[in-house]
Amino acid sequence: VILLVEAVLNGVFLSKGSEFGLIGGIFEALIIASINVIWGLAIGRLALPRLAYRGLVSKILGIVLVIFGGALAFGFNLGVAHYRTAMSGDPFEASLIAYQTLILHPFGIGDIKSWGLFFIGMTFSSIAALDGWLMDDPYPGYGQRTRQNVEALNAYTELKGELLDEIEGIKNDAE
User: Fold this and answer.
1) Coil/strand/helix, residue 62
2) What is the C-alpha to C-alpha distance for residues 56 and 67, in angstroms, rounded to an integer?
3) Do the Cβ atoms of 50 and 58 come closer than 8 Å?
4) What is the pLDDT of residues 116-164, one digit of tens each?
5) Phi and psi for 59 in degrees, rounded to 5?
6) Residue 158's CB: how many other CB atoms inside 10 A?
7) C-alpha span between 121 and 168 (Å, rounded)
8) Cβ-contact 81, 118 below 8 angstroms
């Protein structure tokens, strides 16, 4: 759902310079949204849980991974914003122009819609990271233990029910 919503929102922004119009913009946006969501999920599943570890080394590794992952998401979305700005000029040279302006003037984006695209990308990447983190127990390893506990509890409850039914049958026979 996150992927589709971001793709449609980004598609509206990217359709301006696309030779295929809204469809082309949505296709490009789907690729960009996929990268944002997959990267956000990776940060949420691999980096954020390390912040909950008690060990100092794991916490430091988690902090480094979160900072590195966030910086890459920031840089990627900034590049997308530059690409969107460059699409309004020459669509065939947009990639080259976006790369050059990103290197020379990273925050020199004069188009408000490009900034909107940047913020949408960062927002959905952050939502995906939070979603990835909450997919399982926030403390690493506890999700599996909880599932094992629930499975054992269900097996116990089922066996208890069977035994109570058997005892009820024996009682009824004795009566």
Assistant:
1) helix
2) 16
3) yes
4) 889 989 998 999 999 999 888 877 778 888 889 999 999 999 999 999 9
5) -65, -45
6) 10
7) 62
8) yes
